[in-house]
Design goal:
Elements: H1 2-14, H2 26-29, H3 32-37, H4 45-58, H5 66-74, H6 76-79, E1 98-101, E2 105-109, E3 114-116, E4 122-125, E5 131-137, E6 140-145, E7 151-155, E8 161-166
Antiparallel strand pairs: 1-6, 2-5, 3-4, 4-8, 6-7, 7-8
């Protein structure tokens, strides 16, 4: 069971940003060997569909939902057009740290994490560092620009940080 949860966690973090209708099932995303190794071949068709539905509803594809759009529209950074972190942005203009909360449950990063913030920004981990903590709800994330245009994210109350780039 732990192995299955681990595989699901990896899949959730590695899913590309795409619309909900473009969702690929586990069967389509995994090789036959990976599918069997995770024990998913033992599930009934109904259990696999329930699992795929859960992943679909908890993936980043939910960004297109009306609730997410309302959150983004109400976010002050989005309303003012905060472009910090994008390659075409003039980051020398505003070097202030970006402080927001990570939406939902957070238990660390694994080398390919995506961070969706309450302010509407989405950042992706660019290094392969790993950091794990006991799961917390909506922790405060602080993103600061370092030397050579590198952005670093850290969680309030913890010493670890990872490099990130803004993807939305």
């Amino acid at each position: 069971m732990k192995k299955l949860l681990f595989v699901l966690l990896i899949l959730l973090h590695s899913m590309p940003l795409s619309a909900a209708q473009g969702f690929s099932s586990l069967e389509e995303q995994m090789t036959g060997e990976e599918f069997r190794a995770a024990g998913l071949d033992k599930l009934t068709a109904q259990e696999r569909e329930a699992l795929n539905q859960w992943i679909r509803s908890h993936s980043l594809a939910t960004l297109a939902t009306p609730a997410a759009a309302a959150t983004e529209a109400a976010a002050p950074e989005q309303a003012t057009g905060d472009r910090r972190g994008f390659p075409d942005a003039d980051d020398d203009e505003d070097r202030a740290p970006i402080t927001s909360r990570i939406v939902g449950k957070f238990s660390g990063w694994d080398g390919q994490s995506v961070f969706r913030l309450e302010n509407g920004m989405i950042w992706e981990q660019t290094d392969k560092d790993k950091f794990y903590i006991r799961e917390v709800e909506n922790p405060v994330a602080i993103i600061e620009r370092g030397m050579f245009g590198i952005w670093r994210l850290h969680i309030e109350g913890h010493d670890s940080e990872c490099r990130v780039k803004r993807i939305q």
